[in-house]
Amino acid sequence: MPCPSHHNVPVTPCRAHHSTLCTTPSTSPAAGGGTSSRPASLGGLVLIKNPHLDTMEEDILYHLDLGTRTHNLPAMFGDIKFVCVGGSPNRMKAFAQFMHKELGLEGSGEDLADICAGTDRYAMYRTGPVLSISHGMGIPSISIMLHELIKLLHHAKCRDVTIIRIGTSGGLGIEAGSVVITDTAVDASFQPRFEQVVLGDVVVRSTDLDRDLAEELLACSKEVPDFPTLIGHTMCTYDFYEGQGRLDGALCSFSSEKKLEYLKRAHEAGVRNIEMESTAFAAMCGLCGLKAAVVCVALLDRLEGDQIRAPREVLREYQQRPQRLIAAFIRRRLGLHPPAGPALPSSN
Ligand SMILES: O=P(O)(O)O[C@@H]1C[C@H](O)[C@@H](CO)O1
Ligand SMILES: O=c1cc[nH]c(=O)[nH]1
Questions:
Q1: Cβ 148 under 6 angstroms from ligand 1
Q2: Which of 317, 91, 291, 280 is nearest to 187 (CA)?
Q3: Which of 102, 108, 286, 296 could form a disulfide bond with 167, CB atoms 3.0-4.6 angstroms apart?
Q4: What is the ipTM, given to two decimal places?
């Protein structure tokens, strides 16, 4: 039976939750999952899976402080080709300024304006064909931002957009400072799925990411050889503390042995890092036909501890690593040569 909201996608009850499975996770986490279940977007346009939008005279993107009546979205954003998202507003401002220099655009880039300045929910900057947006922490926060961002790209008639989350994470059996390019985002049970409660039912969506894009990013990492980069599964949790098996939260209901047993099982299932947004990001972008990637630096190895002890300066340099990799990728895609001098994002 077709799912009413996802034409042609079978509906199967989810045994665990007596719920609706809108997009069947196609493979086991170990296998990783391919891109075959993804919709082909029409001429590179963003696919909006909501028939109600067509009936609306105006669409107010409330949390972005933008709207279809108040702003000329095609003029403002129609030529955007790369969208980069990350938790922190300062990081995403620093990334936009860094990209401004990397693209060799006029001016220092220091004066880039926050397009969402009318709201303090998210921050958004653009430079050349690159849009840089913060999403806050966790699935509810990134989910709201992505609904409005994806509609923005649709209203602006953007084509062939690549979207990348550049974030931080806890590593699993990898050296602190390593950068992980996600092949499959998995949940806290190591399954490639994103569960969302819709009208009281659990809807399950696939979390496949674009395999070719991940390989292209890995190839680009050879241009930034001063840190290790690898491809692996990324586990996405609803919490930083108990949800990621930490012993140092305000609450903890398990022993250190149970914690290590869980983290080792995750590692055996192919998980190489843990963060808090990748499953929702992969599911939403995939369903809307966006080519998406997740690139996160590991701030520590969770098999060795829970607290993030590296000095602030070290952590700042770690956060710049995904930004440098993505800059190399965008330059390569645009056919630009690397800039002459050593370039680093500012310290956010
Ligand atoms: O993009 P960021 O670095 O914010 O992503 C991770 C996951 C959580 O949002 C946060 C927890 O410290 O960092
Ligand atoms: O351990 C970590 C570090 C950063 N972000 C996370 O979600 N977990």
A1: no
A2: 280
A3: 296
A4: 0.99
